[in-house]
Amino acid sequence: MVYEKATTSHTPVTLGERSGAKVSKNPTQKHGVMQELMEGEIMDTQKPDMVHILKRQLDPSLEMLKEVIELCPNELWYAENDTPPIWEQVYHTLFCFNAWLRDWSKPIEYPKFHVEEALEMKRPPTGNISKEQIEEYMNKVVEDYKSFLSTVSPESLLQEQVAFNKKWTIADRVLVQIRHIQHHVGYLNSVLRMKKRISAEWIGFNE
């Protein structure tokens, strides 16, 4: 798939400004989203708008993906069985996230280590991507997402843009990324459980 400009009709990952997400199983563990809550830095007394609500659902999904990356041992990161390796699935997830939640008036930026086959998870890829490269890339795409979402108002959530010859509202773009990230996190968690008996914990708003 070629990602093109749409038409209108490196710092650590910190996702949780006002997202309100928390971990269900281990309340003492500080995730990026959780840490600000636990330290009392984001006591929101204002009624949330729809942008706020969408963000506090999307940010925990990103935190769970981040935890999958951190938990995955190197030997499993590159392992190929009958499915694409973890690095490939994570890159696919992050690239799609960046493609959909950014300023569509500008062309997408491909990282220097880009592996084209990984976008569609075609076999076999012509290279691989390290955890360090993925972590750096995640920082970048999260910053892009935060910058993009800071320009979105509740009213503009229903604004439509055209990409791939179809119309999408900004709300559609956020919701589909929640689904897409969780789809891959769920699968990758199952791999971690089967191979290493570890998994990323569930993170959710007000849970």
Automatic annotation (TrEMBL):
- Per UniProt, the ranges with Polar residues bias are 1-12
- List the protein's name: DinB-like domain-containing protein
**Which SUPFAM superfamilies has this protein been placed in?**
DinB/YfiT-like putative metalloenzymes
Could you tell me which species this protein originates from? marine sediment metagenome
Taxonomic lineage per UniProt? unclassified sequences, metagenomes, ecological metagenomes
Q: Which Pfam family is an annotated match for this chain, by its short name?
A: DinB_2
The UniProt record lists the DinB-like domain at 58-187
Chain segments carrying region Disordered: 1-27
